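Predict the holo structure. Ligand: FE2/S2 (inorganic) cluster.
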Amino acid sequence: MRTAVSRLELLQPRSVREALRMLRDEGPLVPLAGCTDVYVGLNFGTLSAKRFIDLWPLDEMRAIRSTGGVLSIGALATYTELIRSPLVARRLPILAAAAREIGGVQIQNRGTLGGNVANGSPAGDSLPVLAVAEAMLVLSSAAETRRVPFNSFFSGYRKSVLRLDEIIAAIEVPRVDGRQWFRKVGTRAAQAISKVVLAGIRSDRPRIALGSVAPTVIRLPKTEGALASGAPIEEARRVLEGEIRPIDDLRSTAEYRRRVSANLLERFWRDTAG
Amino acid sequence: MQAPPMKRLLDVLREECGLTGTKEGCGEGECGACTVLLDGMPVNSCLIPFAQAQGSVVTTIEGLEGRHPLQDAFVVEGGAQCGICTPGMILAAAAIPRGATLDEIRLGLAGNICRCTGYTSIYRAIEKARSRRHR
Ligand SMILES: Cc1cc2nc3c(=O)[nH]c(=O)nc-3n(C[C@H](O)[C@H](O)[C@H](O)COP(=O)(O)OP(=O)(O)OC[C@H]3O[C@@H](n4cnc5c(N)ncnc54)[C@H](O)[C@@H]3O)c2cc1C
Ligand code: FES
Ligand code: FES
């Protein structure tokens, strides 16, 4: 490991309240959840932070439950827990589908939904699902708990409205009507940092979100509008190709991403017809 | 056990505990060579701070004491060549439920990379170890 571990400090709160107090009084601190992103950074010496706070043992933040029609997922719920949850299977099966495509079992046993959101990579596989589900993020600090719509959480590449003294406590998913669809296209299904991910919901108000094609996950209001107004799929494809501006990086060219995105749109529409 | 809380479980096992059966491959969660069981679940010990393993049961390859049916089957079927991936492979395999299909075995090992065997002998070893345990 490239980082000198003896110089790293770890605070170990025993409750969420204590954690929030520490974040207020002893910050700045970097939260640890399942560490599958944090330790990649530490191992390569690319993460310069020296002071951390361990959220992993806080079981209060792990529960998956349904209250008053809202599916509430604790930020610490792991991919394995999402895959096994009967509630997720019933209410938001595309979240379990996304979880199954993340890493191998070792990563699924540790990686958390809150970590995927907080990490904010545009390639985060769960993010398009939360975007079409119009999830709410429950953000807690010692001072207050506020709810921020997932779709206004990110403000740019790896930037969000999360404050330094705040944590993501839970992800709330309202009732989702319509047919759900999820697909990830990557070089190696289980391990690749995704190239293009599309999540869709087919209803009177179709919803579509794409991952890995922009600095953050995006919804496609124009394409959604075209589909809602009954435009043929060929036209919707053209709208989509004009609507997205893919990032051109080493993994694949922008043109490739645009084409794959349009193909995924067409498959979504075909698979959810009738 | 005394160790810095942010030290990787992998390094604590190898340095503090002298258990060098757990290997480091990539150090970034991709290869699975460092796989151990934490309370029975496969995890990458290169991505776990010591603090998060305290109070849990950690099973390393040494913990199988050379007597696990998988270990024997890996030897017999040629599931191990250079051996770097083998401890992690066996621990990941040990966590796959009985009666798993070949596809499920593949999925259970999706986080473990082997550069030598081409996997066929590994899958064969696992199927063999399982059928023997059923007898
Ligand atoms: C081999 C490998 C394969 C991977 N494959 C995929 C993949 O296919 N798809 C994918 O999307 N990701 C993948 N990842 C990335 C990673 O596993 C996920 O992003 C995971 O969800 C991160 O969760 P974590 O709990 O491990 O986060 P951590 O590493 O603990 O934290 C990540 C970041 O979020 C912050 N954080 C965590 N929890 C909270 C919280 N509750 N409140 C506030 N901040 C918080 C941390 O401070 C840190 O900045 C992979 C990683 C590895 C190593
Ligand atoms: S060394 Fe831990 S996964 Fe490769
Ligand atoms: S036996 Fe050499 S990497 Fe698997």
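The pocket of FE2/S2 (inorganic) cluster (ligand 3) is lined by residues B 80-86, 114-117 (CB under 6 Å). Chain A has three domains: 5-54, 59-173, 179-271.
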